[in-house]
């Protein structure tokens, strides 16, 4: 039977199942921390910061396993650790235990990061990868939407149930891949090309040297930093804010159902919006992209602040839904404009530098936003996130005014 499953099919199964399982867990885990574990706003943000820090620190050392020993082994270890982290969290309510669980599954995630795509690239010899990754992403979107529905239904029975089942399923997926994931095309990565801290710093240095030559890329790097700074607190606290001193509609529905409805509707509308934007981008010049980004980011700031100021569920629901959709639309336009201004030979190195800056921003801002929430309330921390994002609008105006987009 193992011979009947090609590497192509195995990758699509992997992409679909992992997308399903992540959203299956993520639909309820924040609500579990709020309602069952009783974490406060500061603790919610610190849990997220621990996860980000874990991924940031372990990315390089775990990458060595995939480069030296085996892509397959790296993916399998990662899936099992992710599963153990999710399963363990479903069984504990202590803050420090939950924080440790984030470190465990974040550590596991770094084993899979890059190793999964490197494995299939080896198997296919680097051919037809774009088509495969696109198909995998489409299957992942369907899987994620189904996961939200399934997790919401199961969460009404017991809020921790999707976390436990999701954790066990990740472990089972790892065991499945032991038997069915072929690895016959693996070759050790040459020493000079392997992941290492020295290589990481060298890559960042090369990337920043390239960025320093372009005023456009310098400003876009600042924008990337602000994207990281504003997002961490908002992503960790939006559910807490939605439930904090806000009366849910009188319809007899549990909070997990409302969270599922919000996530499900947001995803459906966002998928449609992104497809529309992709078509628009084909006909959109650089000047139009600049104006679009100014308008979109202004609306992002406005909807975040409106979400923070909302005093009833309808206002909070409308503001957050609007923000989520606008944020989803912003990403492909921002990335398209950025990529248009990077030489293809340096693109991977430069984008790696941007990724690290975004991660650094998230790690840096998390405790600050958590402290604001701890000293005041979630509303003030949400408003602070919106204000942190606001310089981005001025930076896009700056690019437009001095003509750096050309």
UniProtKB/TrEMBL annotation:
List membrane-spanning regions: 12-32, 44-66, 73-89, 95-112, 132-153, 159-180, 210-230, 256-277, 289-307, 380-400
Q: Where in the cell is it found?
A: Cell membrane
Q: How does it sit in the membrane?
A: Multi-pass membrane protein
Molecular function as annotated in GO: transmembrane transporter activity
- According to the entry, every stretch annotated as the Major facilitator superfamily (MFS) profile domain falls at 1-402
Q: Identify the InterPro entries for this entry.
A: MFS, MFS_DHA3_Transporter, MFS_dom, MFS_trans_sf
Q: What keywords is this UniProt entry annotated with?
A: Membrane, Transmembrane, Transmembrane helix, Transport
Q: Identify the main location.
A: membrane
GO cellular component, alphabetical, reads: plasma membrane
Pfam families xrefs: MFS_1
Q: In its UniProt entry, what is this protein called?
A: MFS transporter, DHA3 family, tetracycline resistance protein
